[in-house]
Specification:
The chain has one domain. The protein contains six helices and no strands. It starts with 8 loop residues before the first helix and ends in a 5-residue tail after the last helix.
Amino acid sequence: MATDPFLSIKDNFPSVNLSPSETKAIECFKIIEKDIIYSDAGNLLLVNGIKSAVFQSILTLFARGINPLAKEILGEYKDLTNDILSAFQSIQPDSESNWIEECIAFGDKKAFHWEWKHYGSKELF
């Protein structure tokens, strides 16, 4: 059985004391992940890419002062998941690739886009 790298940090590193914001990010991830459908749950590279992108987007949103569970943001995670799946099917990366790093960067980029889309763009009109 493969080890899930997204298990609680406390489970993997008992001596680590999480900050309140880190604990909150993990709790948000658990809530959001319940609604994510992994079309190929057996493909750990794909699943971990999706998880990495979602978690990074949560961290970026928190850093920008945005609630990752805001109603206007919640629907964006499905699109993020579909974008990652589509890219995975097109690229078909292998475990030696930088797939996870690219997913993290994509999650970060999407969080900035969501901020603009839902909050910043309204200032233009």
